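pinning this so it doesn't scroll away 📌
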Amino acid sequence: MCGIAGGYTQPLAEAIIVQALEAIKHRGPDDYGLHQHQQMFIGMRRLSIIDLSGGHQPIYNEDDTIGVVFNGEIYNYVELIPDLIARGHVFKTRSDTEVLLHLYEEYGTDMCRFLRGMFAFAIMDMRQNRLFVARDHYGKKPVYYARTAAGGLIFASELKALRVLARETGTRLLVSEQAIYDYLSLGVPPQPTTIYQNVAMLMPGSWMTFDGAALTTERYWRPDYTRKTTLPYAEVLEQVRALIAEAVHIRLRSDVPLGVLLSGGIDSSIVAYQAAQEVGATLQTFTVQVDDPALNEADVARRTAQALGVKNTILPMQVDPAETLQFIVRQYDQPFSDPSAIPSVAISRLARQHVTVVLNGDGGDELFAGYRRHLAAAVTENLDWVPAGVARAAASVLNAVAPGRRSALGYAARMARTLAYTRSERYLVRTTDALLERDKRDIWRGGPVRPTEDWIETVNPAGSGELDVQMSRDVQIILLSALLVKMDIATMSASLEGRSPLMDYKLGEFAMSLPAHYLLKGQTTKTLLRDAYRGRLPDEVIAGQKRGFEIPLAHWLEHDLRPLVMDTLAAKSARVRQYVADEYVDRLVAGEIMQERNHAYLLYALLMLELWLREFSA
């Protein structure tokens, strides 16, 4: 696991490239390397995982005409090497990085179809005088890039490094009002856009080439929900177990200590189960313990570890909210409103004290229909005949009697409300706690922008049913721009590598082929995974309800974070007031609750935006 940077620009002093790499040293504290060739340069910071002594980067091909820097892991590198050797390629190291060089020599830009992993890599082709940069299927590893003022190209794993390169190439980074507008609905700037007008992210499942003049990008993979399996349910259960077992198997390859993050949920329990089948009683699992009994899953996780016969270490999570918040603002580089980043950073720091690599259950909810919004989508498909006025009236009545947003009645109210909305509005209402276009148009004080819902409509899912649309957009919007960003930055800030077996793209393609009635039954989410591991995992895990990685946000905002809120948002000089109306800011600070909205989340999102503007905007 590493951090990379590079470009095709006017020649830069080596000290500048080193400075950019130092900005992302946390991603790779063990080593660094760089290479310049005419106007091209590539560099990296390395966290040593595979071939500790021989994997120094850049790595070069046999005649030193092609070099590569790499962030991530190629999990199937062991399987790829024999064929490449048979084709005449000579390996100098035991690292997965070198596989990339020889695949490029053999297949050029078509090489990505052979890879199973999480990756962002840059190849400097000194024969053709071009850069080739690629990103993994789901976008677990980031690539930010910008065209320079002189028409060149710079790229990096994080904006911290890109800012250094931008400054030295005379490339001014301008805050995007459109990104702020979208943030108010999605809680993040949605990829491929960023918080800066002139910076983009390479899309997942994509590569780009640059030869000093022409920038070419192409997608080699995208989610596809159109091809549905006709296999009997019993065979599907066997196949999903086999695919998960293989995904875990290839992710256990490591030359450094490795463990599993084990919560009380089914996804991480499945990963721990499959890892235990291979590693046995020596497998280390780690569980977070929090003080709030309603949020604490440590007891379930401990019993699961005992049932699997593996080691379990409890990591007590104690967080200073204000201090962690400031760290998150600086570390995440862009406004980021998901409050679960706070415990994610905390657990990454704790786990790093024990291991260098952790496996997790990320992606299980998005790929196997684990959220109540997936139930809502499946039900909504058969209720489009309900008049909008009737739907709104029903939602109003249910809201009035619901004991809380997460209660059964609160859920029913939100589901009823979606029937009065367009498909893109439905996605926002089900998925986020933020604002719709109809909310924002009255409070926006920035310049002209396009509605966020219009952008959502461009994320065209390859599928037909309402559940397909919801799940496909989950993968391409929230998973990509929020959840994967959260975990990449949280783990890398602690120099910890996180691996997600349930996001193996072959497993994902199979999951996308499953019909709705295999994924959901009645009011039960993630039915297929529950059935696949029934009898293999404790019943309390199989029957357990979905719990988010939550924090007592409302309490913190009223107490621990209240001074920060008053010092920033409450001030008439607050920078967010350039973009949203004073009345909206004042209402949130005063504690007034918007109807059918999560007040704590809206206030937190605005606070994070304000802190980012103070830290990074000119």
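📌 and the second one:
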Amino acid sequence: MMPMDLILQLFSLKGRKSRRCPHSPLRHRIGTGTLGIALLFATPAVAQLQTIPGSISTPYPTAVSIAIEWSFSGDDNGNGEVSVRYRPVSGESWLIGPQLRRIAAGSNGAFSWSNRHSGSLFDLNSNQAYQIELTLIDPDGGSSIQTVTALTRQIPKALNTTTVLPATPGTLSAVLASVQPGQIVLLQPGSYSGFSIDVSGQPEAPIVVRALPGAQINGELGIFLQHDVMLESLVVNGRIRFNGSDRVTIRRCVVNASPNQFDGDGIVSFLRSESAYIVDNVVLGTTQWTEAAMGASGANRGEGIVVTGPGHLIAHNRVSHFRDNISLMEDGSAVDQFSIDIYRNELSQAADDAIEADFCFHNCRIRENRVTNAFVAFSSQPGLGGPTYFIRNAAYNVAHVAFKLYRSSDGDVLLHNSVVKAGDALGLYPGVPVRNTFARNNLFLGGPGSVINGFANGSGRVIDFASLELAGASLNYNGYGSATSAFEGRLGPISFNSLAQLRALTTESEASAVSLADFQATVGQPNDPLQIYPQQDLRLQAAAAGVDGGQPMAGINDGFSGAAPDLGAYEFGVDLPVYGPRERLLIDGFE
């Protein structure tokens, strides 16, 4: 022990310049006053193993999902877990929800995130209050049970008793200048030039612009820095833009993008908007399915639907012939991209990405979409900590990669997806680490490879994922196959040349070998990605290898039949979901 007189002498020292301690995890500036000397002789920092729970939030519920965020500090050994129960406030029986994902603090470029447990509840009822019980268990201490209540969003609707204001091309400007919240502007048959809506409604009394058959808008329909505006049953030859506008509804519209104006876009918000409801629309672009169009730098144009900001629901749309069919904003234009549902859309002829969920902060939920003919089916370039969910999507004829988890994507969750493509079944070639990937119950089928507009799609390996960072990753219970008849690949630094080796050498201890013969319908191998293929039925037959081959996951695959859930997007015996608009739109060129 240091003698007291020496300690007192040290505390009396004056005049030294402060210096930076390069090895301190907190990088304190250490001086020679009382505090500085105390720090010099302080006990080295001890790992904080106990979880210190922080605040809980449920930001921006949609009509079908609720995001949950529980911040924490400590838990340096990463063994804290949070389980979830939930029920309607008026109900009695608890339901088990998906366990929250543990998200460690991190950064990527200009974006950073803190420690949190994060996840979502799915398939909820709209305008319903839910009681949510969160149970944090940490063997080292800090365990806690907390209950919160969250209300899903009501599906937007016009007032039942309201004033209808008929408008013609000659009177529209005057009608829009006088419209009040809750009123409906009804476009009569005719040709309308582009216009903007410069007035806001109220959450329970939106301003509605609706059209009768025979009305067409030629140009841009703009909504700028407004809120609670509803567009219904419009035909727009141009684009709809709602920059900086909240609670905008776009429903049962047809948007024909212009080949010469508005960058070929369909429905866009380039500035932060909240809680858009974009459903049952048909959005048609002008990009053709040719080799020269493929890739981000290809001869393509247009975003079918693009948004930034939280709380959006983009569902049951049919979108085709764009560079990206549905996307989020990227890099510095990405603002608060969380709590977003992209659900049951029918997507085709995407020359770059069918769904581009890039720069998702957390709880972007890409679920039950069907993709046919896309250069990339699903992009997360990058995910910012996650979770970014890809659940029960089906993709057929993907020219390059099915999942583009690039730019050091972090926190992607792949569950129950079905993919049939040329080249590597699960191929990712980012050249930089991919972190904290979680994959269960997916079905990946590849075949002979090729080079499309300078991009190789692989040689037919069942997996080529060398950039996967194994620490923090977990892949298991997935099905793989290749029309080349070979079963080989690499997962991180580990190579294998048989199913037995994949199971023995990697986390894929319960992997399955699958083939095209496992589908109940006749599904051919899409060896020529430049061909335009029709939509495929990727449901499994009763004797398929993937039947009962999955892992049960509460809140994800409840109600499965048989001994265990089936691999891929569909449980055996279920009907196909309704993809795209739920009401037939009798518009020329739409089938």
